[in-house]
Amino acid sequence: MLKKFIMIILSTCILATLVGCSKSTSSAKERAVNNSNQSENSKLKVVVSFNPLKEFAQAVGKDKIEVTTVVPEGVEPHDFDLTIKDMKDISNSSLFVYSGFGMETWVDKTLTSIDNEDLVVVDSSKGITPLNNPAGKETGQYDPHIWLSLQDAKIQTKNIKDALVKADKKNEKFYEENYEEFSAQLDKLYNEYKVKFKGVQNKNFVTGHAAFGYLCRDFGLKQNSVESVFGGGEPSPQTLKKLVDIVKKDKIRVIFMEELASPRVSETLAKSAGAKVQKIYTIESKEENKTYIESMKENLLNIYNSLK
Question: Which tens digits make up the pLDDT trace of 251-305?
């Protein structure tokens, strides 16, 4: 009898142990599944240098990515200095995107200091033919304002899309479809204004800052600017007189001025030539809460109306 009782006790203990192990194993499996789901649902961390690249990345990545911009809103990217926090953000990201052609003078030094072997670095200017900087190599060999060309913006966005696919292969189809959608919007706007600008005789317009060289290349236009490609500095009296002569000769009615440029010289030029000052978007920061497409639509419409 005693022997039978001991056997029952032992059997009960073994069963309890097995059930406990089963529950423990089940809990471990649940934790593994939960961790896996959390990993799958987490957003890919992307750091971009400044605003237009943020818009391109978001157009492709949408809700699959979390984008941080290095250069704050309202700050001129040409003059920006990186902080320790910016370095940390870049180092902790999966993807870092910069514009290229000397727009971000701090990039090379930053990348040599980053300790993240898995970081995917994207030079978005890859595949774009640069325009030389007419002001000379002392301020930068190339004009860096490639995002203001619809054709080059398409290349930049493709470079970002390819990098997102490389960093997050499981969402390749999602990124490809979003890229095609955004690309179609760029093509539609480009094709519309290719026809419109072909029909105008005067191809000259005047800006405060020589940021629109790539836009001009898209449409066979010519910008005449108060300031150089990298902005800053006062124009010489000879340059100002030349611009006044161009404005009068071509009957230019509008002097375009950017948000981050000084208005004084543009206003002086407009007054001297009997023209008015009108805003144009460089999109270096998000202006008036407009998207990239909205800003470019307004830019092209205003340039076109000024040439008619």
Answer: 888 999 887 666 777 788 888 888 899 999 999 999 999 999 999 999 999 999 9
Q: Are residues 214 and 186 in the same domain?
A: no
Highest mean pLDDT, choosing among 5-19, 125-139, 186-200, 204-218:
186-200
Asked whether residue 163 falls in the same domain as residue 220, the answer is no
* 134 part of a folded domain: yes
Which structural domain, as residue segments, surrounds residue 284? 198-307
Report the chain's mean pLDDT, rounded to a whole number: 84
Of 212, 204, 202, give the one whose Cα is nearest residue 261. Answer: 212
**Res 9: pLDDT:** 41
91 Ramachandran zone, left/alpha/beta (phi>0; psi -120 to 50): alpha
Q: Are residues 177 and 93 in the same domain?
A: yes
- Is 80 within 8 Å of 109 (Cβ atoms)? no
220 in the same domain as 90:
no
Where does a domain end: 142, 169, 192?
A: 192
Does residue 3 form part of some domain?
A: no
Q: What is the pLDDT of residues 35-90, one digit of tens each?
A: 333 344 589 999 999 999 999 999 999 999 999 999 998 888 877 888 999 999 99
